[in-house]
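Q&A log
Question type: sequence-to-structure
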Amino acid sequence: MADKKLAPNQLEESSQLQLDFKKLRKVGQAKEAVLPVAVQHAETGVVLLIGYVNQAALDYTIKNKIAAFWSTSRDELWIKGATSGDSLEVVEIRVNCEQNSLLYLVRTLGAGACHTKDKKGRTRMSCYYRRLRNSRLELVGS
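Response status: OK
Response body:
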């Protein structure tokens, strides 16, 4: 683990492992009651991201068939693709056995799902673009 906390843009590209073990504590203190939602590509099975939904985000998603989340960092409705153009069409919503998490099966309507870009400036398909090796992070693929 690193001693010095990286800025968000550095964190997203770094090979330094700095896991945020306090994230769920922060989510638990948020203004809105939320559930975690895993987002998976309906055809490839690739996990694209993990987000959170409140009732408003879930209602929007069901009505519009476009993935919406509750931004726990900004405390606001986050409609995926509203600013980036990289929307996620919801094919199916699944609920786990304890009804405390969701799974969105989606199709990408843009270049990808992650808000970060690769070295060529392209939107990454998934937020899981690094793997852990020998306590360091390395890019997966290109």
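Response note: The chain has one domain: 31-139.
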